[in-house]
Amino acid sequence: MKFRLPLAGLCLLPLLHTRITAQTAPPVQPAPAPACTTQGAIGDWNAAAQLIAGISNTTYAGSMTDEQKAAWTDYSKTAAADWNRLKRRYVDRISAWRGKYLQKAPATNSVFYPFSGPDATNALAFFPDASEYVLVGLEPPGCIPSKAEDFTPEYWPALREGWQTAASMGFFKTENMERDLAEGPAKGVLPVLLFLIARAGNSVLDVAPLGITPAGALIASNDKAATETRGLTIHFQDQRQRLRTLRYFALNLQNRRLARKPGTTKYLQTLPPGGTLVKSASYLMHKKYFSTIRSIILDRSTVVIEDDSGIPYHYFFEPPVWDVRLFGAYHQPIKLFETGVQEDLKAAYDARSGVEPLDFSFGYKWRQNESNLLLAVRKK
User: Fold this and answer.
1) Which one, of 249, 200, 189, lies nearest residue 94 by Cα?
2) E runs forming strands in the chain
3) SS3 17
4) Which end of the chain has the lower number of beta carbons within 10 A, N or C?
5) Cα separation of 206 and 210, whole Å?
6) Which residues contact 255 (CB under 8 A, 6 or more apart)?
7) What is the Cα–Cα distance from 89 to 365, expressed in whole angstroms?
8) How far apart are the C-alpha atoms of 286 and 289, rounded to whole Å?
């Protein structure tokens, strides 16, 4: 869905039906289950995430050939450079912005990020204190190799393709994701999610398959017969040992697609109140055939952070239940989405009344001083 020009599988635990909070104990692992439909179990997900992130190969090195080790070492150096660039250009600046403008916003324990693809970075950067993140994209959940010998030298450059554009431009390109995550050795979003979560300083505890049933329940299964929407769950700890859960669903959010999935629609409608993040979303919620997800966001959110490709500006005043602040600059969308121009938003920016500066790129206008950001906080 994203022209991201838009920025699993799996294993071990039965899905917890209660939401994990910072006070709950880490999940207890039962006997290993298949890592995905074609690969074996992964006993230490944090070691796997560290390997994927290019941080450490200690657990795997004894089973790797010299050729594999050399390929991983080259990858590790490149991955570190990619992450440092992403952190310098976006993450650190978002953290500074958050400290200035979100301190008085309502607490956001639950974060929804539709049209996200595997972009864990922005969700964690804007809402680092949430305990639950729900991401939705078109890309399949995917899996990672379960044995050291399956991390071939060819795996690493293919994996890097999954986030290279995001590291330099701050968003994922849909056409790249379709090619790199569906057809290449690094299949699905799981490898990219693990890379971004681990590089952000988190420890991965567990990865498990996930499905939404026609009744709207979450179950630890990717069985097509039992679920109408499939995805994955990643449990992880941040540097302060707080437990976090990220859920990713492969889902088309168009009205007619959601109408065929009543359980999924029910699940989205009953997400806890909290934050919503939207960026590089192909202007889909400008269309009437994406009105369902637009309404869900407006109904459940206490805080919305978005660029102009998200919910049109006028919806935040119909009814006027939001305090809205604008940041950066707005002129018109990129040429691919030139029909998405919003004259009322342009007028608000042209008036310059209350428009704050923005020192990081956000969305399709990725060059400095071209991005726009809208912060909407629900009135008490």
Assistant:
1) 200
2) 110-113, 132-137, 203-212, 218-219, 229-237, 243-250, 274-278, 301-306, 322-328, 372-378
3) coil
4) C
5) 12
6) 289, 290, 291, 292
7) 14
8) 9
Ordered by start, the domain boundaries in the chain are: 46-378
Give residue for tokens 């379960």.
Answer: 146
Edge to edge, the sheet with strand 274-278 lists 218-219, 203-212, 229-237, 243-250, 132-137, 110-113, 274-278, 301-306, 372-378, 322-328
Q: pTM of the predicted model, to two decimals?
A: 0.87
DSSP state of 229: E
Sign, CA dihedral 48-128-356-5, equals positive
Report which residue type is found at 145.
P
Distances (CA, A) of 16 to 10, 12, 20, 193, 245: 15, 12, 8, 20, 10
How many angstroms separate the CA atoms of 312 and 253, rounded? 17
Count of C-beta atoms within a 10 Å radius of residue 275: 27
Tens of pLDDT, residues 337-371: 999 999 999 999 999 788 999 999 999 987 768 99
